[in-house]
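Homework help board

Subject: predicted structure for assignment chain

Our instructor gave us this sequence and asked us to write out the predicted structure in token form, then describe one feature. I got the tokens but I'm not sure how to describe them. Can anyone check?
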Amino acid sequence: MKQRLLLLAFSLFTTLASGQKPVFNVRYSELLTTYIFAKNLTAGYGDNPFKTEFKKSKYATEKYQRLISQLDTLGINYTYQFSEYPYGSKMRGMTESILKKNLIASDNLTDFKLRSVGLIPNSSLNQLTNILSAFMPVYNELIYLPNKSKFELQLAAISNFIVTENIPGYFETGINFYNTVWDSSIPFEIAFYPLPNSKGFTAEAFLNNSVSAIQTDLTDFNVLLSVMLHEIFHILYDEQSVKVKNEIDAYFQAEFIKV
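My token output:
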């Protein structure tokens, strides 16, 4: 199934004396949001708007409950260390983050599968894509289509807000503050999805991606984008070079000895 991808292309190519500005792309990813929707239905998640809508729908059947249970126990998150960095100074790599990045970047499930071969066992990858294929029409009927018009207006407003409030400028401030490594030719992909009947939202950042829900009645985006930047700054801190991480570690080791 062709992924519905709303890419609001407002790449910011203004060049400064120090080089090219960071590129921020705001988008909606049907594949990623279907995954988030299905994960929210599993036993490990408490009550939430997705689970509420699903439970009262015609899809709350044994067939889908079985798929939810399969997803709940499916092994897709393997971790790895960056051993040359001081202990605890860099987040572990996680295959789930790369899978989510691939969901955002892919046009359809076949594309996703090709990008993701080798990250997890093929049997797990096939099972994951089968689950996503089953839940995509469920998600669209219950969540996306009833909120599509409002959500598209919100995406357009957020895109404009990012430009007018110079969000890339804050990103550059973070790069300088953390003395971090970032290639401005790598765009930062910001994926949003609608969240109905909710007073709050969740956000996360990984690799060169940020993902956040948007309450369907939200019109003030200051808090939303502040939280998003907070999550992105975790990535900038994590992406400090091994030289900078070693210098920071040596400083704290020396101060600890003084104490």
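Reply (TA_rk): Your tokens look well-formed. For the description, you could write something like this. The first helix runs from residue 30 to 40. That's the kind of observation they're looking for.
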